[in-house]
Design brief:
Number of strands: 2
Order of helices and strands: HEEHHHHHHHHHH
Strand content: under 5%
Bound molecules: heme C
Distance between the termini: 78 Å
Structural class: mainly alpha
CATH superfamily of the largest domain: Cytochrome c-like domain
Shape: elongated
Radius of gyration: 23 Å
Strand order of the largest sheet: 1-2
Number of domains: 2
């Protein structure tokens, strides 16, 4: 007996089967952008291929960084150990306005879904050798007045008197200051970025100078002063 009710039920079941199929397709596309049988991009396992396609032209195919394009060494421990997932995620999604780092997240007009941004972070983390520094919120207790002469002595040549950047990235960039934690800045100064011109400045790190933890916190507070100031 073909009552109206069973017809409606049948339509509903057809529609739900279709919906499930569409959903499955979307999930497969998000998590595995290469189709079955070719789970590679540019001849590489897909996560690496994703990196090659979207990042390598600027950051180098091993994430070693490019001094000429001022793209940091994001595939190396110096960066990865100090950077939280959240810092990397926001930088990739939103880019860093005022620099060549493009906004790559879909919500910001880029090509990468949130799932692909997270896949990219897992790919970068898979190359990390050392344990990450446990992320800590909050401000360091430093003095910008004490930090200023230290900055002028050790940092100004590469980062500029106003933090506008030269060989090294701009430290007065609002995007950078808005996403980087004090701890990330402190760890970067302490550990440096081996393999790049950014030397370590922490004690016992074998860099061009050894600053005390207080001097490094003073530098962080000095750099923080550029937050909210007009950016050139
Ligand atoms: C067109 C060149 C370009 C492309 C493509 C690009 N980047 Fe960048 N990226 C840069 C530059 C230049 C900077 C440094 C910005 C600055 O001077 O502050 C940067 C900065 C970063 C930073 C912050 C590093 C730090 O030291 O604070 C991360 C993380 C990053 N990029 C990740 C990525 C990832 C992941 C991709 C690919 C999905 C990517 N970038 C694609 C040019 C690029
Ligand atoms: C010889 C040049 C040079 C000197 C001197 C130098 N830096 Fe750097 N710095 C760089 C370069 C180049 C990078 C980017 C490294 C990379 O490719 O990952 C960098 C990166 C950084 C970063 C990370 C920026 C980001 O976008 O994530 C901070 C913070 C920083 N330097 C602070 C300092 C401070 C503070 C001093 C002084 C104690 C200093 N630097 C001295 C060249 C230098």
């Amino acid at each position: 007996m073909d009552t109206g009710l069973t017809r409606v039920t049948r339509y509903f079941s057809i529609i739900s089967v279709l919906l499930v199929m569409v959903l499955a397709l979307v999930v497969v596309r998000e998590y595995r952008p290469a189709w079955k049988g070719e789970q590679t991009i540019a001849g590489k396992p897909w996560r690496q291929g994703l990196y090659e396609e979207n990042c390598a032209s600027c950051h180098g195919s091993e994430g070693e960084g490019r001094i000429s394009g001022r793209a940091p060494a994001i595939g190396r421990d110096g960066f990865l150990v100090a950077a939280s997932d959240d810092f990397i995620r926001r930088t990739v999604r939103e880019g860093r306005p005022g620099t060549n780092m493009p906004a790559l997240g879909r919500a910001n007009g880029g090509v990468l879904s949130d799932a692909l941004v997270d896949a990219m972070i897992r790919f970068l983390r898979s190359r990390q050798q050392e344990q990450p520094v446990p992320p800590a919120a909050g401000r360091v207790s430093g003095s910008p007045e004490r930090g200023k002469p230290v900055y002028q002595q050790y940092c100004v040549d590469c980062h500029g008197a106003k933090g506008q950047g030269r060989v090294g990235p701009a430290l007065n960039n609002p995007g950078f200051l808005g996403t980087a934690s004090d701890q990330f800045i402190r760890e970067t100064i302490t550990r440096g970025r081996p393999g790049t011109p950014m030397s370590p400045y922490g004690q016992g790190k074998g860099g061009v100078a050894e600053l005390s933890p207080q001097e490094i916190d003073d530098l962080v507070s000095f750099i923080r002063q550029w937050e909210g100031s007009t950016h050139e």
